[in-house]
Amino acid sequence: MKKGILLVNLGTPDSPSVSDVRRYLDEFLMDGRVIDIKPIPRNLLVRGVIVPFRAPKSAKIYKEIWTEEGSPLLLYGLRNKELLQESLGEDYVVALGMRYKNPSIESALEELKAQRVKSIQVIALFPQYASATTGSVHQKVMEIVSKWQTIPEISFVNSYHNHPDMIDIFAENGRKHGIENFDHVLFSFHGLPQRQLLKADESKSHCLKDASCCQNLNDKNYYCYSAQCHDTARLIAQNLGLTPDQYTISFQSRLGKEPWIEPFTSATIQQKAKEGKKRILVFCPAFVADCLETLYEIAIEYQIEFVEAGGEKIQLVESLNNNPRWIEVLKGFIMKQEEKSLV
């Protein structure tokens, strides 16, 4: 019997049309792990306020990054699937699912089920653990397979924010642009509401009570998204030989007015411009594939803001995308699980 591998990323609209973007945003934002408030107020907020106003604006932005073949995020995902399948060989079946929209997690699991795989390894394509991303993927997978009569052995890759090869790939991509050609380096991660960090603090003893808490990863805050982000940035900076004054960690993509993780990327680049920084190199290590948040938000939107504030150049460092070494990292997760199964 073959072994199943399920790769899962966040998702993308089926097209950049307003109607498709509206459907995507509706499914995404109605997830109780994404907007973690009670169902009725979430429904009113998402369908009554956010989606009607955000869909037309987001559709225009998606058109800016859309290719002739489709969404960059989906294209990178499909290529990852193909390359990993080639690398693993015929003893495995690799499927791709998106947490929101298509191809769905359910369709990907059905693909594996049809192949009668004896096991399924789920790899959520988010290096840092967060309830709204990795947690949501794991919950969705378990909800679906719980309805099957025969449930194969299932395992999950939970977090790999500090994987040495992944760190080295990001650093290598940054070096291609010449670190010495920039005044400052910025590590921009996707943001989360501070409320979600507090909920994830099982000890109820450290989160947000100590300003330096996230800067040191330990047993108590190991599954804190912000702490894992700081650790990823620190490791990439260390690989590049950067000193603490040469880089900054920030968070982008804030939604709504409630408190989110700070500092915000937008405010950070404006501050750096005021300090006289003219050229900033930006890494986005929360994304394994370039997408709306990197190709538009960083490379276009923040570039405009930076210039208006007195800066000159925001240079986006490409993500892992289809880098052959990234495929080997994914294969390594699978082989590691194989070793565990033999013990």
Q: Any overview of this molecule?
A:
With 343 residues, the protein is of the alpha/beta class. The chain has two domains: 157 residues, Rossmann fold (3-Layer(aba) Sandwich), CATH 3.40.50; 153 residues, Rossmann fold (3-Layer(aba) Sandwich), CATH 3.40.50. Helix 5 links the parallel strand 3 and strand 4. Helix 1 crosses helix 2, helix 6 crosses helix 8 and helix 9 runs parallel beside helix 10. The longest helix is centred in the first third of the chain and has 27 residues.
The CATH architecture of the largest domain can be named as 3-Layer(aba) Sandwich
Number of domains: 2
The shape, in one word, is globular
Q: How widely separated are the two ends?
A: 20 Å
- Number of DSSP-assigned strands: 8
Tally of individual helices:
11
SSE arrangement, N to C:
EHHHEHEHEHEHHEHEHEH
- Unreliable stretches covering 5 or more consecutive residues: none
Question: In the CATH scheme, what's the topology name of the largest domain?
Answer: Rossmann fold
Q: Which terms would index this structure?
A:
343 residues; alpha/beta; Rossmann fold; 2 domains; four-stranded parallel β-sheet; 11 helices
List the SSEs and their pairings.
Layout: E1 3-11, H1 18-29, H2 39-65, H3 72-88, E2 92-100, H4 105-114, E3 119-124, H5 131-145, E4 153-157, H6 164-175, E5 184-190, H7 194-200, H8 225-240, E6 247-252, H9 265-274, E7 279-283, H10 292-308, E8 313-316, H11 324-342
Parallel strand pairs: 1-2, 1-3, 3-4, 5-6, 5-7, 7-8
Helix pairs in contact: 1-2, 3-11, 6-8, 9-10
